[in-house]
Amino acid sequence: MALEFRSSLNQRALVGVMRLRGNHLASVDEKALTIGLGLPT
Question: What domain of life (predicted)?
Answer without folding.
Answer: Bacteria
